[in-house]
Amino acid sequence: MEIKTLSKVVTACVVAGVLSGLLLANITFYEVLMAQLSQWADTQSLVAWNNSPHY
């Protein structure tokens, strides 16, 4: 009976570790994507500003 309980605890810990790893990877991907989009938006803003006849 103790071995089954220990097995369940170990399985739960492994699942929690995998899920937290996936969450961390997802957050990292989101941060990289947002940084690239921000850089692209800054570039587009400069292009539009330099091509505007009002400036």
What report would you give on this structure?
With 55 residues, the protein is mainly α. Helix content is 91%, strand content 0%. It has one helix and no strands. The radius of gyration is 24 Å and the shape is rod-shaped. The relative contact order is 0.06. The model has no long low-confidence stretch (mean pLDDT 90).
Category from helices, strands and their pairing: mainly alpha
Main beta-sheet strand count, sense and barrel state: none
Rg, rounded, reads: 24 Å
How many strand units? 0
Q: In which range does the helix fraction lie?
A: over 70%
**Average pLDDT rating:** 90
Low-confidence stretches: none
The SSE string, one letter per element, is: H
- Proportion in β-strands: under 5%
Spatial separation of the terminal alpha carbons: 78 Å
Shape: rod-shaped
SS field, number of helical segments: 1
List the helices and strands and how they pair.
Blueprint: H1 2-51
Annotation keywords:
single chain, 55 residues, mainly alpha, 1 helix, rod-shaped
